[in-house]
Amino acid sequence: MDRFRTMQSFVRVVRAGSFTLAAQQLGMSRALISRHVSDLEVRLGVRLLNRSTRTLDLTEEGSRYLEFCEQMFRDLEKKEDEIGKVRAQPAGTLRILAPNSFGALHVADAVIAFAKQQPRLKLSLLLENTWFRQDDFSHRGLDIALRFAPIRKTALTAEPITEIDWVVCAAPDYVARHGRPAKPGDLASHVCLLHANALPDDHIWRFQTPKGVVAVRVNAAIYSNSAIALRKAAVAGLGLALLPRYAVADELEEAQLVTVLPRNRVPARTLFALYPASGAAPTKVRIFVDFLSKWLTTRGIGAAPQTQVRVTAGSR
């Protein structure tokens, strides 16, 4: 017999003062309610109720057990209410891993804004590019990782958050000294500044031209895994750089940098949120992903991704 159900029946009988009325209130038969109370008495080894044709009287043991049952039900209701509130306003710790430059320039601000909206959450933001293994989620206690390329052949969900625009740019001084490339193929004769480990082949720059996608192998003078470092090198006139627009927006506006090959668009790159694919995403992860996507889009840092489909990386 279900212990919770028998306890519930006992409390209802006492409060209703009648087996019949308790049965009606619980939608059960009188016989079943009576059996519940009898089973309780057998299991506890004491009599809980003194029964007569007209009255029900609690024994001393019954009074103590009634107090115990009612306290347990109050505690249960309180805990369920707390859990429901956590779902609406999550608590605990949310551990986020983000790329170095993007994290410093934008994710940090987004996390600060998110923290103001979710005061019950403790937030941990780690910035690094030397990543990724799937077991980092368990070994490092991560909840979510941001990345500009999905991870293949792992049991992770890769959810697109936003599309980031990229641009080839250079300092006016560099253009004055070396000339401005007229077409993507001209890049092969220029000095370039390259991201390290951003894509499987960092030496290949791709452009969308009227004739289709053109891939050009470029020569590097400086490598870095930081867009901020490459931006500084470009401003110093050390070469052409392929950089996310969010990293050079101010420099372009102030003419410290100028765009190169503006008619040949560099394909946008998708920012993905990665998290374990088992079951539904925890509420704290779901709320942060939705917040970050809206935060980046409304500030013009990114555009809504072309697809909102969540992809399990292991299925690719």
Layout of secondary structure:
Blueprint: H1 3-16, H2 19-26, H3 30-44, E1 49-51, E2 56-58, H4 60-88, E3 92-98, H5 100-117, E4 121-127, H6 136-139, E5 144-147, E6 156-170, H7 172-178, E7 191-195, E8 204-209, E9 212-217, E10 219-224, H8 227-235, E11 240-244, H9 245-253, E12 258-259, E13 266-276, H10 283-298, E14 311-312
Helix pairs in contact: 1-2, 1-3, 2-3, 5-10
Features:
316 residues; alpha/beta; Arc Repressor Mutant, subunit A; D-Maltodextrin-Binding Protein, domain 2; 3 domains; 10 helices; 41% helix; 26% strand; rod-shaped; disordered C terminus
Fourth CATH level, the homologous superfamily of the largest domain: Periplasmic binding protein-like II
Q: What is the helix content?
A: 40-55%
Largest sheet: 10 strands, mixed
Which stretches are low in confidence, meaning pLDDT under 50 for 5 or more residues running?
307-316
Give the beta-strand count. 14
